[in-house]
Amino acid sequence: MDAGPSDPNLTTRGRPRKKRVRTVTGCLLCRQRRVKCDERRPRCSNCARHPHRVCEYPFDTEGQETDDALVVRSHTPTVGDEPYISVAQIEMLLSHAAAALMEAQRIDADLLQPCSRTALADSLIAKIRRWTDGNVPVPGVWQC
After folding, report:
1. Which residues of 77-91 are buried (b: 16+ CB within 10 A; e: fewer)?
2. Residue 108: exposure state from Cβ atoms within 10 A (0-12, 13-18, ≥19)
3. 3-state secondary structure (DSSP) of residue 67
């Protein structure tokens, strides 16, 4: 049984294959999903059916598309749109916020508890008493 021609540019009957034209003008999402894009601006029909998708078109200079092509965004998320943030990013933000909150609460607790003096505070109180011969009262905040 014949396995066909070994040349990938020929069909099984030995005829030249038709070249498929790959579009480079469709939106990036349609190209990524490998679906046909009608290239309607500012949003193609595929992206218009899904309101939270961002329809982007590559910006090519003088007909030459570059690897680092600028992207023209045709849809800017508004207040009503769902945020474009991953679960991992949310978890990271929450952990940073929780750590900052705990640190703020710890500092507030230290300031509100005068009896939990540090060595520095004890040293300052002792110096104040020596310099003033004990004649200046130490504020009540520092006394336990």
Report:
1. eeeeeeeeeeeeeee
2. exposed
3. coil
What's the burial of 55, exposed, middle or buried (CB within 10 Å: 0-12/13-18/19+)? Answer: buried
* Residue 129 burial (CB count, 10 A): 14
Query: How far apart (Å, rounded) are the C-alpha atoms in residues 30 and 140?
Result: 71
**Nearest-CA neighbor of 68 among 76, 77, 59?**
59
Give phi and psi for 27, each to the nearest 5.
-70, 155
pTM of the predicted structure, to 2 decimals: 0.31
Answer whether 53's CB lies under 8 Å from 47's CB.
yes
The predicted-structure confidence for 115-141, as pLDDT tens digits, reads as follows 555 777 777 777 777 777 766 565 555
DSSP category for residue 66? -
**Contact between residue 142 and residue 115 where contact means Cβ atoms under 8 Å apart:** no
